[in-house]
Design goal:
single chain; 433 residues; alpha+beta; Beta-Lactamase; Heat Shock Protein 90; 3 domains; 5-stranded antiparallel β-sheet; 14 helices; 51% helix; disordered C terminus
């Protein structure tokens, strides 16, 4: 039992579960072998939070299911029995996967990921769940219809990735415990204590030096950005390896797309690591590096598709730069993949800057043009209205309180497309630079 508690220490899992939840945009939680929550539920979804607030006395039922007084969740049991990812959906139509945590022949607990709809929710089923929870059907439906369904195949892929991450963390924790057991003799323990004392003395000396330096905060913040960048790069590498292992090109492409999104976030932290001012990002420099990376990742012939940028000196706060960078990455990827089918030639232009918007202060405007095949309507060749990428753009615009305008262009050799986003300049409104 003592070793089990060490292996499932919630603090030791917090970082990897938090990064996974943010990267995949699903909820994730760690449970013990009896299904009890350990630590916290990372990135809980709105409908799930609404249900839990209505029924805090949920007891020992599955923490991800919304089955009220009836039914039961089989995912954790199936995952334990088969030793692989198991998928289930509840009465409300919300789906999740259960990932078993085992070492050798010993089962320790389960990782749950999901809290998403695997299809558009059924009003009748939601009405029954609302009744069981004591909620208004209109309230539950109002929250549910804003959640974008996630396909079962993608949820299964996310579960497989979580299985690999979970087993790696479990193995790492077990290795640490085993090594600690090997060094229990008095002489070795004394030596370790001496080394620890020396290390603590050195650390205290370093902290004292930093406390006397005007650049202490900058050094510490740079180290944080460096570590975040490293962690994001590790996740991106795992996604790339997972994509390479799939023969199904659709699944592989989905994982590669997620990899590029994570790398765009990592690029922000890499840039901040070398920046003199850690409060804001040189977005013009970031946008150029992002675009060049995407063109290289997609293997674009630069003689066939050209890129130009006019952004000037544009500084954004970190919390605005990350969603704005993700939006720009999605729009560039969309143009690369759909605007120039076959061997069609063309160009992509990016522009950005501050614009006056009256008494409310300044706004940031970003725009992307292409002179490709255009957007007469959603088509298989260029599915602007329904692509996963543009759904993500819409969500990120909500985070920025941004408006999104999508119009047909007027370029040559093709009609092309124009995307514009505009959002408040938070630094300006708060009195920043």
């Amino acid at each position: 039992m003592e070793r089990q508690r060490e292996l499932l220490d919630p603090e030791g899992w917090t970082q990897v579960l938090h990064l996974y939840a943010q990267a995949m945009q699903v909820a994730v939680a760690l449970t013990d072998e009896k299904g009890r929550l350990m630590g916290i539920c990372h990135n809980p979804q709105p409908i799930w939070s609404l249900a839990r607030n209505a029924r805090p006395d949920w007891g020992e039922r599955c923490i991800f299911c919304l089955n009220g007084e009836t039914g039961g969740c089989t995912a954790a049991g199936d995952a334990r029995r088969t030793g692989s990812v198991a998928l289930v959906h509840d009465m409300a139509g919300m789906a999740h996967v259960a990932v078993p945590l085992s070492f050798g022949d010993r089962y320790f607990g389960t990782l749950l990921a999901g809290q998403v709809f695997d299809r558009y929710p059924d009003p009748f089923a939601l009405g029954q769940v609302a009744k069981d929870l004591g909620l208004s059907q209109q309230m539950l439906w109002g929250v549910a219809r804003h959640q974008v369904p996630l396909s079962r195949s993608n949820l299964s892929v996310y579960g497989s990735l979580l299985l690999a991450l979970g087993q790696a963390v479990l193995g790492q924790h077990h290795s640490v415990i085993l090594k600690r057991k090997l060094f229990v003799s008095d002489a070795e323990l004394h030596s370790a204590n001496q080394e620890l004392a020396t290390a603590n003395a050195n650390l205290l000396a370093k902290v004292d030096e930093l406390s006397k330096s005007n650049g202490e905060k900058s050094v510490l913040l740079q180290e944080v950005h460096h570590r975040v960048n490293n962690n994001l790069q590790v996740i991106a590498s795992l996604l790339r390896m997972q994509a390479e292992s799939f023969g199904d090109s659709q699944l592989a492409n989905a994982l590669r797309t997620s990899q590029l999104r994570i790398e765009s976030m990592a690029l922000i932290h890499a840039q901040l690591y070398d920046a003199a001012d850690l409060r804001q990002v040189d977005f013009a420099d970031y946008a150029m590096r992002l675009a060049e990376n995407l063109l290289m990742s997609y293997g674009v012939d630069r003689d066939r598709i050209t890129l130009s940028m006019n952004m000037g000196a544009l500084k954004l706060s970190v919390d605005q730069a990350i969603p704005a960078g993700l939006i720009l990455g999605e729009l560039i990827s969309n143009a690369i993949k759909y605007a120039f089918p076959g061997k069609r030639r063309g160009s992509i232009r990016i522009q950005g800057g501050r614009i006056e918007s009256g008494p409310g202060g300044e706004r940031i405007e970003l725009a992307l043009w292409d002179d490709g095949v255009g957007i007469p309507g959603p088509t298989p060749a260029r599915p602007h209205g329904s692509s996963r990428g543009l759904q993500i753009v819409t969500i990120l615009c909500g985070q920025l309180h941004a408006t999104l305008e999508q119009t047909r262009g007027a370029g040559e050799p093709g009609p092309g497309a124009v995307f514009r986003i505009s959002f408040p300049d938070r630094a300006f409104s708060e009195g920043g630079g």
